[in-house]
Request: fold
Amino acid sequence: LTRIRKPDNFSFSETLWFLDRELDDVMHKVRDGAVYRLFEDDGRPVLIKISENGDFLEIEPVNSKTFDEKKMSVFINEWFDLSRDIRPFYHLLLKDKELAPLAKKYRGFRIVGIPDLFETLCWCVIGQQINLAFAYQVKRRLVETFGQSITHNREKWYLFPKPSVLREKKVEELRALKLTTRKAEYIRGIAEIFDEGLLSKEKLSALDDEELMISELIKIRGIGEWTANYALMKSLRAMNRVPFGDSGINGALLRLKSIPKKNNRRQVEEVFDRFEGWKTYLVFYLWRSNREKMA
DNA sequence: TCCCAGGGGCATC
DNA sequence: GATGCCCATGGG
Reply:
C-alpha cells in the first residue's frame, strides 16, 4: 500500500468525476469511490486501486502483485497533477468577471493527464473531427484488439497497445475498428517513429522549450497545432498551451459570455493572455464547465 | 436532411 | 497565410 498526502486545493471527487464521465474510457474504471487501472511496472502489468482515505490517497495492488512504490508515487503525482500549487490560477480567475464562477464551482479540480505520450498522440488522432462518444468507442476497440491485457476475477484490464505492435498493423486492420484510412496511416506512422526511438517523452521533454516541442511534434504527419498543444498539456504538463480552434473552448467562452462570437481566434487569445502561466488550466476548467449538466 | 464534432493534410493562389 | 476541399462516422 502506498499513501500520498493530498495537497491543498485538490478534490479527489472532481478527479473521479472526470474519469467517470459518460464517455467510457477503456483505460480505467471507477467504482465505489475508487479508480482502477493497470500500471506498468518494468513491463509487468499490475492492477491498482486508488482511493481516498482522510488526508491521503491510497494506492494498493489488487491482483496480489507488488509494485515499485516510488515509481507509483511519481506516476500518480503526474497523472493527477498533485505537486502543483494552483492558488495563483484561482487568483487570476477571481479577477475575471465572467470566469470567476469557475473558481468556486470546480475548486480542487486538477488536470487529469495522460502520462504516456504515445497514447496521447494516438488518442488525438482517433478523436480528430468526430464526436467524443464515438472517439472513445474507437479507442476501446483499438485497445481491446491490440493492447496487452490481464484477467482478474474474470474481468479484463488493458494496457495501451505498444508502438511495436501498432506499427505492424495493416491499414485495413485499423480501418476495421472504424478509423479512417488517413487516421490509420497517421497512427502507423507515429507508432513507427516511437518504435524506432526517434521520438519519446524523454526526448521531447529534454528540448526544454515548449515552442520547440510544438515545432518538433508538428513535423509528424497527423499532428497539427491542436494535437501538439493537447499533447503538451496532457502528457508533458506544459502550463501555457491552448489548442486554438477547439470547439469546446470556443463554446465555453461563448456560453460564459467571455467572448461575443465563436471562432474568433484573436478574441480567444485576448482571454488567455490574461492567464499567463495558467493557460492550460483555463482550458481544462472551460472543458469542465461544458459538462456541468453531467455532474 | 443538415450540421457539427476536443483536426489535419493538401492544393491553390 | 489564407482559403477551400477532402476525409468519413455518429449524434442531435
